[in-house]
């Protein structure tokens, strides 16, 4: 194990936002935002599908990017996918000063 990192890393926090888990939307959007006095330093978006449903590979992540002071995730399902699915977006937030 190496030396301890800077103390500021201890103040990072993660924000997690999930869309509804339904099959009735062709596109879903989820935005995770950082609070006051924090800035987004990274993030991710993840698709959650029911792999037992036919064509479970028919849901695609189309956007995972910084958005304002947070992170934006957008995903789309094709007409072939009939199962429930959701989108989960994460923002990693760091102190602004």
Plain-language structure description:
The chain is mostly beta strands and 97 residues long. Helix content is 0%, strand content 55%. It has no helices and 6 strands. A 3-stranded antiparallel sheet has the order 1-6-3, with no helix packed on it. Strands 2-5-4 form a 3-stranded antiparallel sheet, with no helix packed on it.
Topology readout:
Layout: E1 13-18, E2 27-33, E3 38-49, E4 59-67, E5 70-77, E6 85-95
Antiparallel strand pairs: 1-6, 2-5, 3-6, 4-5
Mean residue pLDDT: 86
Oligomer: single chain
Number of helices: 0
Give the overall silhouette. Answer: elongated
- Determine the N-to-C terminus distance: 29 Å
DSSP E strands, number: 6
Largest sheet: 3 strands, antiparallel
Helix/sheet category:
mainly beta
Percent helix, as a range, is: under 10%
**Order of strands side by side in the largest beta sheet?**
1-6-3
Order of helices and strands: EEEEEE
Classify the beta-strand content into a percent band.
over 45%
- Radius of gyration (Å): 16 Å
Runs in which pLDDT lies below 50 for 5 or more consecutive residues are none
Condensed summary:
The chain is mostly beta strands.
What keywords describe this structure?
6 strands; mainly beta; elongated; three-stranded antiparallel beta sheet
């Amino acid at each position: 194990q190496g030396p301890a990192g800077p103390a500021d890393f201890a103040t990072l926090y993660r924000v997690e936002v999930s869309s509804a888990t339904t099959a009735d939307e062709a596109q879903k959007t989820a935005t995770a935002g950082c609070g006051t006095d924090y800035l987004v330093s990274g993030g991710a978006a993840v698709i959650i599908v029911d792999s037992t449903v036919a064509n479970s590979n028919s849901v695609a992540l189309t956007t995972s990017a910084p958005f304002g002071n947070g992170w934006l995730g957008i995903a789309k399902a094709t007409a072939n996918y009939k199962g429930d699915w959701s989108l989960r977006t994460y923002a990693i937030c760091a102190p602004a000063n």
